[in-house]
Amino acid sequence: MRRINLRVYFGxxxxxxxxxxxxxxxxxxxELTSELVAAYVANNPVPSAELPGLIARVHVMIAxxxxxxxxxxxxxxxxxxxxxxNSAQIRESIQHEGLVSFIDGKTYKTLKRHLTANGCNPHSYxxxxxxxxxxxxxAVSYAEHRSALAKAIHLGRxxxxxxxxxxxxxxx
Length: 172
Known about the structure:
CATH architecture of the largest domain: Orthogonal Bundle
Number of helices: 7
Order of helices and strands: EEHHHEEHHHH
Distance between the termini: 56 Å
Shape: elongated
Number of strands: 4
Largest sheet: 2 strands, antiparallel
Structural class: mainly alpha
Helix content: 40-55%
């Protein structure tokens, strides 16, 4: 597999990618599409049913970039419009053992890593799906478990330990 170098120009209307050098031996949009999709699929799990759609989207974007029809705003492709969940769906997404992600519908103990992997942060996730500012990013069971661990090793406690706490600590 060869290395693909894209030159990106930033302007007032966003960014435009150009493949250098622009010559007769420059790879076609089909070649670039196959290389990009192969590299993506090698490093990311993609269901076989979604592969044709992925190939089509990448090809359309590359062909559009090559012809100057598409630009990439703010350095990233525009996201599709998402459906805002209603209050019942928001309540149901908060479970004791995990939080159901509105991105992929899977349950997670903590959403932070999942959001980062999908190019979000907690603030943008809440804004994107119309979630309240106090929407949790950690499951209740996980927070309770971490709290119990912290209490067991006396984190957050000021002052010296009592004689009984020292004995309990030695036993544990």
